[in-house]
């Protein structure tokens, strides 16, 4: 059995990936500082899979503690590194907090990989590295644009740090996965996205508004150069996204990678506007959503969607869920969370 270390494994994408890894027979160890998640997620992973992964509550910025932990777990085959701060707006106001946490934790992870001979890393990157692309859809070769936030910068710089490390040390291999917009929840409704406070992202804001927790959804702009004037994104089901991590980890462990460092776009290939996302929500929930068009959100990208063909052909991975299916699971999750049925 292969041991996989998942950092940020109680978080949104980390918990779904842990479930998929366990389903494929991997043993998962989680490191998380519970900054933006709860330890009870482990109970729910247990409920779904019948297996309780070990949770080590640890801050990855604490090099000594990380070192001491890894020393005791030298049989780790791969690390999937999710743990990071991700609030774009907050990162603009508190850049040092973001640079310190997101970069230091990554550097410490690479440090222990080097020190203890852990050979494989999967890194949680983002389509934010492309900025506003000139040509759509975006391929992995599309030029990177200057990031529009310190958060985005940490993803770009993170990729560079990994690339340089894999080039200087051929015993370390890595894959960066550039996610487009993950949405939805596990079909069991036992795990999902649990933003603290007011959500920044569209779908949790949408489902909370549908449930009556928020008064109305503000649609940030309808004067963009898109068919209905609202911004376009590529929304993919988080379970599809989680499965891509299992494929990437297997590729590295089985030495099927073609280069020491590889990058893949993970998206559906379909661009969906904010107004279309609202209509999808209304279709699957039967709830008429209260929304209002307001001004543009500073730093927003007008339109972006993936060309996932490289991931399709090289990883043999593609998204299986439709927008409506993903949206439905987001709505079911919201209802379960709010009715205290967890
Ligand atoms: C942002 C980041 C992305 C990051 C992700 C994680 C940028 C450019 N993108 O994605 O890198 O990985 O967050 O948190 O910084 N919208 C509304 N009303 C709302 C909320 C959102 O209209 O209340 C619209 C936005 O204008 C956007 C779309 O919904 O067009 C999606 O927004 P959001 O869910 O915040 O994701 P991104 O901005 O794409």
Describe the protein.
The longest helix is centred in the N-terminal third of the chain and has 22 residues, at 95-116. Strand 1, helix 1 (12-23) and strand 2 (27-32) form a beta-alpha-beta unit. It is globular and about 55 Å long. It has two domains: 3-184 and 234-266, Rossmann fold; 202-233 and 269-338, UDP-galactose 4-epimerase, domain 1, CATH 3.90.25. The strands form four sheets. The protein has a seven-stranded parallel β-sheet with strand order 3-2-1-4-5-6-11, sandwiched between helices. The chain has a two-stranded parallel sheet with strand order 7-10. It has a two-stranded parallel ribbon with strand order 8-13. It has 342 residues and is of the alpha/beta class. The chain is 41% helix and 17% strand. Uridine-diphosphate-N-acetylglucosamine binds next to helix 7 and strand 8.
Please outline what is shown here.
The chain has 342 residues and is an alpha/beta fold. The protein is 41% helix and 17% strand.
Which radius of gyration do the C-alpha atoms yield?
Answer: 19 Å
Structural class: alpha/beta
CATH topology of the largest domain: Rossmann fold
Oligomer: single chain
- Bound small molecules, deduplicated: uridine-diphosphate-N-acetylglucosamine
* Beta-strand residue percentage: 15-25%
User: What integer is the average pLDDT?
Assistant: 97
Outline the low-pLDDT stretches.
Answer: none
Separation of the first and last Cα atoms: 31 Å
Number of strands: 13
Please give the order of strands in the largest beta sheet.
3-2-1-4-5-6-11
The helix/strand series, from N terminus to C terminus, equals EHEHEHEHHEHEEHEEEHEEHEHH
What general form does the structure show?
A: globular
Largest pleated sheet: 7 strands, parallel
Name the CATH superfamily assignment of the largest domain: NAD(P)-binding Rossmann-like Domain
**Mind telling me which CATH architecture of the largest domain this is?**
3-Layer(aba) Sandwich
Please count the helical segments. Answer: 11
Q: Estimate the helix proportion, in percent.
A: 40-55%
